[in-house]
Every structure is written in structure tokens, then in C-alpha cells.
Design brief:
The complex is a heterodimer of chains A (about 180) and B (about 425).
Chain A: H1 13-25, E1 33-34, E2 37-42, E3 45-55, E4 58-70, H2 85-107, E5 112-122, H3 126-129, E6 141-150, H4 154-166, H5 169-175
Antiparallel strand pairs in A: 1-3, 2-3, 3-4, 5-6
Helix pairs in contact in A: 2-4, 2-5
Chain B: E1 2-9, H1 13-24, E2 29-32, H2 39-43, E3 59-60, E4 63-64, H3 76-89, E5 94-95, E6 100-106, E7 109-114, E8 117-126, E9 133-134, E10 148-150, E11 165-169, H4 173-184, E12 189-192, E13 202-203, E14 206-207, H5 208-214, H6 228-233, H7 250-256, E15 259-261, E16 264-268, E17 271-274, H8 278-301, E18 325-327, E19 333-338, E20 342-343, E21 362-363, E22 366-367, E23 372-374, H9 391-408
Parallel strand pairs in B: 1-2, 1-8, 2-5, 8-23, 10-19, 11-12, 11-19, 12-15
Antiparallel strand pairs in B: 3-4, 6-7, 7-8, 9-20, 13-14, 16-17, 17-18, 21-22
The chains are: A alpha+beta (about 180), B alpha/beta (about 425).
Chain lengths: ~180, ~425
């Protein structure tokens, strides 16, 4: 495990820095494809599994398959077997930014004691219900509030959080448009 | 065919500084210039532009500003005069109106073709500038035809643009200056900003560029900069060389009524889409400015510099409601100014030293081909490399290397003595 002056947030920063150097010369190896498969169960209840992906020029697998149940709450007249799909975006954003905070902290020699991100996504559901065509389907705004206990000044912690956003895949995917193609096989 | 020891390409301040040191070492050379001396300053700058650096910083080898207003900022006419005077003082062998169309490697040097004949030489110094072409993103193709599109290389002044709204894309020095000028002309202005460099014009009673100079930040060498590729791509700071020495950061623009939006992401179905990450690029710039000011304060604490007490600036105000999309078809926006940076033009360089991103492969100006050199590129040898006063140290060192290289050539008509 990488440690800088005994700092250990459990992130192997050296491996990441090495990968950055290696992939500069081999951009094709940097091309990853992430995959998921969603199966309809019943109603608005579905099950998604994630196991395989591609990257570093080869097929790859997680150690184990993960299963995610999505449904809608009872106030949506659904059975609530799991969280709503739009809540999964918050899961992705929170875990991505938190991973970024840990990595950047490790790289900057900042020992973290606790990190908590509270996220609120403001959603006007008139969009998805088709009740008002001026209302968008997705979030109108997302607010992330970090509570971080670390051996660092407030300014350094703010810089951690800023850098984490700057290098976040999910932050980018949510804040910038992405071309999405949906086909019927 | 004509032969010389060294061909310098470009008679701007960089090429002329190279010529100065070549003459000092009695190295036979010619400076090839496609237009006139200081051509880009004459023809590729907008009318109101002034240097970002105060007059007292305008210095070239053996030549410095000696006018009555050391704290002022030169107009483009004054810059041209200043560089012209330097060319005359150093008696630079400039061939104006001579555009280089090809540089090829030969067995013992380079073959330089121009639109007015060709010549051979042992060494070449590329000083053709870092800002030959505007770097405009591909989304420009999708902008509706009714919207006029300009870049800072073709923009001259507000009168040239149609009345109506302007979208300025990019918040470097060019972007903030043009946004301010166009807003003052009475037009509604939206400024799209990604990562940017915020600086106050003055700090603790001194020009902020005095601090960059005095504290040694500008002297940091390229091989000491932690992330050199990033430093070389950094946007120019949000500064304007205005006589009133006013700060022109995003808060100043907001106060003028300029609307801020996030980084331009794409144009889709006639709409421009902006990143929702505006808050973060603003935080990054504020944090970085404060870190730089801390560096200044730490330096000042160890000197008897005549400066006022430390100060901190109001955080940049993030707009309450951020526009994420802008309809380019409705007539609200009549003009887009792409202040999205510049890039050098090496289409004439037939030596394989340009990487996939169009950047010259060099180590502190020593290009990856024997006898080929570069000057006047960002953080070439120091953080100050692209500023007028930054060229002296770079040019001296690059010409030192060039002279040592010539000395190693064991034979040839222009072998010179050891340095």
C-alpha cells in the first residue's frame, strides 16, 4: 500500500500514477467498456447485473457479479422492491466523488478519518408524468454536501473536493451531455 | 543555393532575441519573416488590446522601456514600435515578406524553402509564435448559419459585429477582455467558462505581475514545474492592461451584467449545451488564486519588499440560476466569439517533431532533431517564457546550446570555435 509520510487512506496512488504514465503511450489500452444487463421482473421492478467489462486490451471481470434491484416507491403506486433508477445516479455520483476524495487525499498526503457525502437531487416529476412539457425529465439540480474529518485545513479540504470533481467520471457524465444510442436488437 | 549557419523563423520578439545572441556570438544567420517585424502584433490583435505586463517589465536584451509611464501597459502600436526599435538596435538581418513554406532535414543540416527562394543551413530556430491559429472546437460546424462566428485573431472591435447578443466562449485574458468590451458596447453578453486562471490586477499595492516577477514564480524552470504538460496548456490569466489598473475577473464581469455559463459542451439541434460544472471550475480558480497569493505572502514575509498588508478577495459569485442550454436559432445570440485558445502552425515543418496534438516535441526549446530549436512557446524554459521580458534568458540559453552544437560538428565550412 502506498504511504506518504505514514498517510494511508487505502488508495494505491502509485499504481494509479504508474497507469497514467503507461497509458499515455498506449491510448488504446485505456479504452474501457463498462456493461450492465437489466431484466424486467414485473411492473416497474427490474434487476440489473454487472460483472464483465473490457479494458487494458482484454476482457475483464469483477471478482463477483453484483445485482441491483430497481423499482419505485409506494407513493408511485409501485411495490418498492428497490430504489428508483434516478436514485442510482446519486449512488454513482456519491461513490465516484468519495473515491476521488480518498485518492486525491492520498496523493496529497492528507490522512482522512471520515468522509460523508450527502446528496440531494431536486426532481420535478411532472416531467416524467408528461404533466408539463416545460419540465425536464431529469434532475433540475443536484447538491452534494461533504463532511470530511481529516488532518488538513479547510482550504486543503475544499481543494480535495474540487479536484475530486475535476477528475470524476460520474460528475462529468452528469454535468455534460453524453451521446446515448438506444436500439432494438 | 544560398547557405547560412542559422535560419531564424519569425521576426517577433523571440526571433529577434535569438538574432541578438547569435550576432553576439558572430554566428552567421538570417531571420525570415513572412510579413513585417512584429507582424502578429500588427495584424492579428484587436484594436483595444494592450500588453498584460506593465511597461517597466518590457525589456529585451539591451533594450528596455524608458518612457514616462512605467506602470502603464503598451498599446499594440507601442509594442510594434518597441520591437521595431529592438530590431534596429540589434541590427538584425531580417528578410521581411519571406514566408517559410518548408523545412526539411538534410545530411548536414536543414533545407529551408520560402516563397522567395530556398537556402540551406546547419541550424534552425523556430520562433514563429504560439498563437498562429485559433483553436476552435468542432462544435462550430453545428452553429446555425445566422450566427456570426469570430475569433480573437480576426476580431478588431465591437463595430465589426452585428448588434444583438454575443456569446463569448472561453474566459482567458482574451475572453474576459472581449466580453467586457462587447458588454460596454451595449450588447447582452454571455460568457462560457471552463477552467480559468483568476488573478487580481494589483495585490498589496503592486501589480500582480510584479509579484510573479519579484517572488521568483516566473523564474521557475520548466524542469522544476510539477506538471509541465498542464503548465504549458494553462489558459492565460484573467487580466487586462487597462490604464485604470482594474481587476477583470468573473465578479467584475458579473457586475457589468455579463451572464456566466459553464463550459461549452456541444451544439445539438441548434442549441448550445453548457456543463453543469460551473461551480467547480470557479472553486478551482479561487482556490488556486489563494494558493498563489499565499506563495506571494510567504515570499514577502522574508523580504523588506515595500508592499501593503495581505488581502484576500471576495469568492467568485456563482450565478443563482445557471443556464445549461442556449438556443442559437432564436436570434438572442447574433455572434459567437471563440476565445478558446490558439495553437502554433507547423504545417510547413517537414521534420517529424510534432506530436499527435500538433505540439512541438522539445526539451526546453531543444527540439528532438539535431540543430533544431524553438523559442517563444509557453513555459519553454521558464514560466515567464511567453512574456516579452521572458525571452532574454530563454534565447540566451537556447543559443548557447546551438553554439555548442555547432562546435561539435567536426567539419564543414561554418565550423565555429568552442564556446
Amino acid at each position: 500500500m502506498t504511504t506518504i509520510d505514514g498517510i494511508d487512506n487505502g488508495v494505491n496512488v502509485q499504481a494509479l500514477l504508474d497507469a497514467r504514465e503507461a497509458l499515455k503511450a498506449a491510448p488504446e489500452a485505456a479504452q474501457f467498456t463498462w456493461r450492465s444487463t437489466t431484466r424486467w421482473e414485473n411492473g416497474v421492478h427490474s434487476t440489473t447485473t454487472v460483472k464483465d467489462f473490457a479494458g487494458l486490451g482484454a476482457e475483464q471481470s469483477h471478482k463477483a457479479s453484483s445485482t441491483f434491484t430497481a423499482d419505485h416507491p409506494e407513493v408511485f403506486a409501485a411495490e418498492d422492491h428497490g430504489i428508483t433508477p434516478i436514485e442510482y445516479l446519486l449512488v454513482g455520483l456519491g461513490s465516484c466523488l468519495t473515491a476521488g476524495v480518498a485518492s486525491v487525499a492520498q496523493n496529497r498526503g492528507i490522512q482522512l478519518r471520515s468522509v460523508e457525502a450527502r446528496i440531494e437531487g431536486a426532481h420535478d416529476i411532472r416531467g416524467i408524468l408528461g404533466a408539463d412539457s416545460d419540465v425536464r425529465n431529469g434532475y433540475n439540480g443536484i447538491k452534494v454536501t461533504f463532511n470530511i474529518d481529516a488532518d488538513a485545513s479547510k482550504e486543503d479540504i475544499e481543494a480535495l473536493v474540487a479536484q475530486s470533481q475535476k477528475r470524476s467520471a460520474v460528475f462529468d457524465a452528469l454535468t455534460n451531455p453524453t451521446d446515448v444510442t438506444v436500439e432494438v436488437a | 543555393m544560398a547557405h547560412t549557419t542559422t535560419v531564424v523563423i519569425g521576426a517577433g520578439h523571440a526571433g529577434l532575441a535569438a538574432s541578438h545572441f547569435l550576432s553576439e556570438r558572430a554566428i552567421d544567420h538570417v531571420v525570415l519573416e513572412r510579413g513585417e517585424v512584429a507582424n502578429s502584433w500588427r495584424r492579428e490583435r484587436w484594436d483595444s488590446l494592450r500588453l498584460l505586463t506593465p511597461n517597466w517589465q518590457s525589456r529585451l536584451p539591451g533594450h528596455r522601456y524608458e518612457g514616462p509611464d512605467p506602470d502603464g501597459y503598451m498599446t499594440m502600436g507601442e509594442v510594434v514600435e518597441f520591437i521595431d526599435r529592438f530590431a534596429a538596435l540589434s541590427d538584425a538581418p531580417v528578410r521581411t515578406g519571406t514566408a517559410v513554406t518548408s523545412v526539411r532535414r538534410t545530411d548536414d543540416g536543414y533545407h529551408v524553402t520560402t516563397d522567395d527562394g530556398s537556402l540551406t543551413c546547419r541550424t534552425v530556430v523556430i520562433a514563429s509564435g504560439a498563437c498562429n491559429q485559433p483553436a476552435v472546437p468542432g462544435m462550430r460546424e453545428a452553429v446555425p448559419a445566422a450566427v456570426e462566428q469570430v475569433t480573437p485573431l480576426t476580431y478588431r472591435g465591437p463595430d465589426q459585429l452585428p448588434d444583438g447578443g454575443v456569446l463569448v466562449v472561453g474566459a482567458s485574458a482574451s475572453g474576459v477582455q472581449l466580453a467586457a468590451e462587447l458588454r460596454r458596447s451595449g450588447r447582452p453578453v454571455i460568457l462560457s467558462t471552463g477552467e480559468h486562471v483568476r488573478l487580481p490586477r494589483t495585490y498589496r499595492g503592486r501589480d500582480v505581475l510584479w509579484w510573479m516577477d519579484a517572488s521568483g514564480v516566473w523564474d521557475q524552470r520548466y524542469d522544476e514545474v510539477p506538471d509541465l504538460p498542464r503548465a504549458r496548456q494553462l489558459a492565460s490569466p484573467q487580466l487586462v492592461g487597462a490604464p485604470e489598473r482594474a481587476t477583470l475577473d468573473l465578479n467584475a464581469l458579473t457586475a457589468m451584467g455579463v451572464e456566466l455559463v459553464g463550459r461549452a459542451a456541444t451544439v445539438r439541434d441548434g442549441e448550445m449545451l453548457f456543463s453543469g460544472g460551473l461551480g467547480n471550475v470557479i472553486s478551482l480558480a479561487d482556490l488556486k488564486m489563494d494558493r498563489l497569493l499565499n506563495t506571494f505572502d510567504e515570499w514577502a514575509a522574508g523580504t523588506d519588499a515595500d508592499v501593503k498588508p495581505p488581502e484576500r478577495f471576495e469568492p467568485t459569485r456563482v450565478p443563482e440560476s445557471k443556464r445549461l442550454r442556449l438556443d442559437l436559432r432564436g436570434g438572442e445570440i447574433r455572434t459567437i466569439v471563440w476565445a478558446t485558445g490558439y495553437r502554433p502552425d507547423y504545417t510547413w515543418l517537414d521534420v517529424p517533431v510534432v506530436d499527435g496534438k500538433g505540439r512541438l516535441s522539445h526539451d526546453g526549446g531543444i527540439v528532438d532533431s539535431p540543430g533544431l530549436y524553438a523559442l517563444g512557446l509557453p513555459v519553454l524554459r521558464r514560466r515567464k517564457s511567453t512574456f516579452i521580458h521572458g525571452i532574454e534568458d530563454d534565447a540566451r540559453e537556447v543559443v548557447d546550446h546551438l553554439a555548442r552544437y555547432l562546435a561539435t560538428l567536426s567539419s564543414g565550412p561554418d565550423r565555429i570555435g568552442s564556446t
